[in-house]
Write a structure and sequence with these properties.
seven-stranded mixed sheet; Aspartate Aminotransferase, domain 1; alpha/beta; 16 helices; about 40% helix
């Protein structure tokens, strides 16, 4: 529906009407009318390096399909076979009737892959953080988070009954300040391994040192690290050689693992406890068979084809260097998430649409996804991007960046 028709619709609001805020929300519609709305764009093809948008082919640099596995024939075949055997859904929660043999098999495979005692799968990555944090943090406990942690971590903290403390992004001095004021309570530090908007990596050695010194447990959300970092793609903990030292590792399937869902891996006793207290697990429908089978197939491919990780690292190095040479501000990124920082929201919206006109699909991030005045174009890359794709992307950014006075 045309946004102007919606805006012009006559609505009589009574005082105290809950929906008043809905009818007064105009920011998105104003962007739509200006042709600058960059969200909910409809893609008509798989998440490959080239996608179809409104019948037009575009190079995708806005996907988290880091290893290019979401359209891999082997992954799709595994999903098809799972549907043929188990159907399309589980019709219940893991806690009751929704645990299939393939769920248990995947948990065992994930535990081996992450080099932990045990793992537990959830229906979404968001639910992992909601369930794990709220299950572990009680009234007398404290959860400590980086100010740039993912929204699911923040919401998991809000659902817990414990005290929430934040420290400045990747600032170990500030983390120590927070820890010094925790008064001997049970403490859980939760950090992103790779921060999803900035693309920088947590100072894991620093966080771990302080966790040990102040008797805190440590959980790493490695949604954007698994399949990306480490010699064999095990993520941030492998990258730093600290797999045995981190208490809990969380991961999602919607990035490198070609599906949807998430998991938590750690000590068997802790996973057993979470299994019986995580409300987002107990009261949510079980992950569907096709998703589970797709993840299992993706894990096998990661083990068999380390060249995908190597290629992704090559692309990351090239694109970081190229954007810097063009004169763009990319922040401290060290990963395939490369932000082009433009600062002003309006410039970010314009830039996304101008890039689209040049045949490049990139994402926009404004507050609250990033701090005020730090609006950015979020680009991310796949192991399956070709050099020709990257050349086209850089040419488009050069043209658009110059037109907007960014370079």
């Amino acid at each position: 529906m045309d946004s102007r028709l919606v805006q012009n619709k006559q609505v009589v609001m009574k005082k105290g009407d809950l929906f008043e805020k809905c009818f007064n929300f105009n920011k998105a519609r104003e962007l739509m009318d200006l042709g600058l709305y960059p969200y909910f764009r409809v893609i008509e093809s798989a998440q490959d390096p080239v996608v179809s948008l409104n019948g037009r082919q575009m190079i995708m640099v806005g996907s988290n399909n880091y290893l290019g596995l979401t359209n891999d024939p082997r992954v799709k075949e595994a999903a098809k076979k799972a549907i043929e055997k188990y159907g399309t859904g589980c019709a219940g929660s893991r806690f009751l009737n929704g645990t299939l043999e393939i769920h248990v098999e995947l948990e065992e495979k994930l535990a081996r892959f992450m080099r932990k005692d045990a793992a537990m799968v959830f229906s979404t990555g968001f639910q992992v953080n909601l369930g794990v944090i709220s299950a572990l943090i009680g009234k007398s406990d404290i959860v400590i988070i980086d100010k740039m942690d993912h929204a699911s971590i923040i919401d998991g903290c809000r659902l817990s009954y414990g005290e929430i403390k934040k420290y400045r992004h990747n600032d170990m001095n500030d983390l120590e300040r927070v820890l010094k004021n925790c008064n001997g309570k049970g403490k859980l530090i939760v950090v992103d391994g790779v921060f999803s908007m900035e693309g920088d990596i947590v100072d894991l050695p620093g966080v771990l040192r302080l966790a040990r010194e102040y008797n805190a447990r440590l959980m790493v959300d490695d949604a954007h690290g698994i399949g990306v970092l480490g010699k064999t793609g095990r993520g941030t903990c492998e990258y730093f050689g600290m797999e045995d030292d981190v208490d809990l590792i969380m991961g999602t399937y919607s990035k490198s693992l070609a599906s949807i869902g998430g998991f938590i891996a750690g000590d068997e006793h802790v996973i057993h406890y979470i299994k019986h207290f995580a409300r987002s697990l107990i009261f949510s429908a079980s992950p569907p068979p096709a998703s589970v089978a797709a993840v299992s197939a993706a894990l096998d491919i990661i083990d068999k084809e380390p060249e995908r990780i190597q290629r992704l690292q090559q692309i990351t190095t090239r694109m970081l260097r190229a954007f810097k040479e063009l004169g763009f501000e990319v922040g401290p990124s060290q990963t395939p998430i490369i932000p082009i920082i433009v600062k002003e929201n309006e410039i970010a919206f314009k830039m996304a649409m101008m890039l689209q006109e040049e045949g490049v699909f990139a994402n926009v991030a404004v507050s609250p996804a990033v701090p005020n005045g730090k609006a950015l174009i979020r680009t991310s890359y796949m192991a399956t991007h070709t050099d020709e794709h990257l050349d086209t992307v850089l040419a488009a950014f050069k043209k658009v960046g110059a037109a907007l006075g960014l370079i």
